[in-house]
Amino acid sequence: MNWIDYRSARPYNYSRSQIAPFPEKAVLTLNAEESQLLAEMALSVPANPYNTKEQELFIRHAAGIARAFSASSAAFIRRELEHGFGAVLVKGLPVDEDLPETPPVGGSLPVAYKKTFISEAMLVALGVLTGAEPFNFRQEGRGKAPLIDNIVPVQALKSQRGAGGYDNNFPFHCESAWHRKRPDYLILLGVREAPGAYTLVFSVEMFEGTSWLEEAGKIKDWFRLKAPDLYLQMENAGIPMGTARYSFAPPLEKEGDTVRLNINFNGTDCISEEAVQWLSALEDFVEAKTAGTIITSGDALILHNYNTCHTRTGYKPTFNGEDRWFLRGYFKKDLWERRKDGHEHNTDGTAIHDLVNAGWMTPEGTLTMEFSKYVFEPDETRKLDGHLNELAALAFNYTPISGTRIV
Q1: N or C: which end of the chain has fewer CB within 10 A?
Q2: Cβ atoms 372, 381 nearer than 8 A
Q3: Across-strand partners of 202?
């Protein structure tokens, strides 16, 4: 099969000079009393989210903060995510008052970089309100896999269309759409804003009254989503992917009377030129219907990762310590659900037997904590040779290990 890389066939050329405002119906503004209560609870959390040993304690306390949101706020968030626009902009959240400079690189932070963790607590608490669990991918943070990603401009990544990049408009995408553990929800929480740095959102609501609702039921096998180049580079360097390289979900997928999005205009292969033209028309529609907002300090944008796709505009950082800085968190409802029998790497059961003998899996089919060192220390995986290396690549397809939250 001679697949056509969509982005190569249709180079990106959207100016985004006209951006519609984020819909008011999907904006929730907390009152001062609610915000103050949340701040006091966040300041009392006795854990540091950047200390791996304290992460579970931090999450438990953040879950308690989630219960402190008013019933009306919690109901608004759930209703709008599941049955409305598919995204909610929460404003008026408490913020850390004594902020250090914007870090020079993203990912995790040194344990002592910040004095307080109000923003991190708000991120996790909002995620808990969705009914999902926080997690991250091993490859994020270039292999350091923080529970919470700090996203900042990085000079060396200026032209990258992803975290760290800033000198270009980034195509629309659903977060990690090809991955077996695709997030159900994504949260972007502002620490520092950058004038002109818009986050854009497209919702399935925008298909109402258009022919795209009919198209969603027609397209089946014209496309494949693929892993980002960074993940492939890390795999080649000895860090197994932990999922298949490709997913064959169509960009628009019919589910009952609704449409699900499986979009990544920067990471899709097309089966033919006709498929390229179809996807190009869809991208034109998405770009024309986008809504945007500048995420400021005290804002959190919660995205349903099947009902929306999102992106950012290019912007110009100054690298003076006051540049754009936001937190990113992934949340999934069935995070610890075991893989079903019949995994593509395990057709005869031999590999599972070998994983059990290696001490990496229980007879019931769950990974043991013995394997966790390979999750947290990528260099340990690189030391494995021959059959053990192959087994580790298979084992990563069964992550996360309960309690680790790393896929």
Answers
A1: N
A2: no
A3: 309
Quick one: average pLDDT of 189-209? 96
Closest CA to 119 of 199, 188, 30: 188
Residues 6+ apart with CB under 8 A from 25: 80, 84, 85
Higher confidence at residue 220 or residue 181?
A: 181
Backbone angles phi, psi at 382, to 5 degrees: -65, -25
pLDDT score, position 258:
85
Q: What is the pLDDT of residues 317-333, one digit of tens each?
A: 999 999 999 999 999 99
Query: What is the rounded distance in angstroms from the CA atom of residue 289 to the CA atom of residue 120?
Result: 32
Cα dist. 155→152, 253, 254, 316 in Å? 10, 38, 41, 11
Percentage of the residues of the chain whose pLDDT score is greater than 70: 96
pLDDT at 34 over 50: yes
Please determine, for residue 346, whether its predicted confidence score (pLDDT) is greater than 50.
no
Distance in angstroms between the alpha carbons of the first and the last residue of the chain: 30
Which domains are seen in the chain, by residue range?
13-220+289-332 (3.60.130.10), 350-398 (no CATH)
Q: How far is CA 340 from CA 21, 345, 392, in A?
A: 43, 12, 18
CB neighbour list of residue 347: distance below 8 Å, 6 or more residues apart: none
CA 290 – CA 312 distance, rounded (Å): 11
Residue 265 confidence (pLDDT) above 60: yes
AA letter at 119: S
* pLDDT of 377 strictly over 90: no
CB 93 within 8 A of CB 300: yes
